[in-house]
Write a structure and sequence with these properties.
This protein is α/β, with parallel strands linked by helices. The protein is built from 11 helices and 14 strands. It has a single domain, classed as NAD(P)-binding Rossmann-like Domain (Rossmann fold, 3-Layer(aba) Sandwich), CATH 3.40.50. Bound molecules: nicotinamide-adenine-dinucleotide and uridine-diphosphate-N-acetylglucosamine.
Length: about 350
Amino acid sequence: MTTKAETVLVTGGAGYIGSHMCVELLQSDRQVIVLDNLCNSSAASIDAIQRITQKQLSFVEGDVRDSDLLARLFAQNEIDAVLHFAGLKAVGESVAQPIKYYDNNLNGTLRLVEVMSAAQCKTLVFSSSATVYGIPDSVPIDESTVTGAINPYGRSKLMVEELLTDLYEADPSWRISLLRYFNPVGAHASGEIGEDPNDIPNNLLPYISQVAVGRLEKLNVFGNDYDTPDGTGVRDYIHVVDLVKGHLKALEYLAKGPKLAIHNLGTGNGYSVMEAIKAFEKCSGTTIPYEIASRRLGDAAVSFADPTKANTELGWQAQFDLDRMCEDVWRWQSTHPTGYPKA
Ligand code: NAD
Ligand code: UD1
């Protein structure tokens, strides 16, 4: 007897993490439907996913807040689960334009769960973030750490976590996984997909890689007077391929029965800005010019995960180290110095 392949809707599937997710889903023989409005991505990633996997997915250009479009998608397809990546993620922009962030991140999720509920599809994995922990009092950070976001982006993630928790409490037939990502970096080993920020990158690894490739002149190191071994900020960088594999494990976990589960996805290791620069220089054979600048507002000195809960409950553990993350970023960046081909 053959069983029907699982069909997964991936919102935001053309983006950085979503595109890596699609590769893993197709390679695990699932059917994939991507819904993305391309506000922060390019359809070139969809072509690349299909080249890497030699498989087809179904791409729908549209907005996750469009209830009619969502309802059509659910009417036309037997969707078993939704992986919800679509959202806006730039912290600074969220401070300047909070309503845009609340509209996209909250309304996107509300419209989605309304339509899912009507279609009796009640399996959802949500892209949350370690940003919900704000500035932690201690590390490593486990899931029982008090939450308290410190900017509109973070608050939008926390509010979505809360509304999904309320939804589950009202209707415990849902299967919901809230995955709190630490610092996703890296790229697929093929070098065909990777992170392609629209503007000047906010995050460390994309910034370093654009310096390495000559698009940016030098890196500003935001503070070297933190209480850390070399004075620079420490983070839990996690390879994007490890991260998306965590989502496959979350789907398997949800398949066991209704629940609302929260898991950190991190490696449990912290690396400083200086260690990241050195690792990138080694892997790329380049020199990264840098300058010490003042601290960035809202930055924690140290943040890294206690991933024990995901290790034990999901049977998931990150495999790749910082050198491998840098190697893969460099392969992508050096072969795509200006990102995906522009239309
Ligand atoms: P990304 O911007 O590359 O991907 C998000 C995708 O969603 C983009 O392709 C964008 O076009 C699409 N999108 C945005 N709003 C949409 C809408 N209303 N309708 C349809 N599509 C829409 O970002 P990413 O790094 O891949 O992040 C994916 C998710 O993970 C986001 O929810 C983000 O907040 C979360 N997250 C990311 C990080 C990180 O460091 N990258 C860390 C923690 C959590
Ligand atoms: C940022 C976001 C956070 C989000 C996370 C993962 C802010 C304030 N926080 O956090 O909400 O969840 O990304 O996407 O934007 N650094 C430099 N120079 C740079 C860039 C970064 O020195 O040009 C330093 C930072 O001070 C930090 C480290 O590098 O110590 C990592 O920074 P980044 O990649 O932006 O991640 P987070 O600070 O963890």
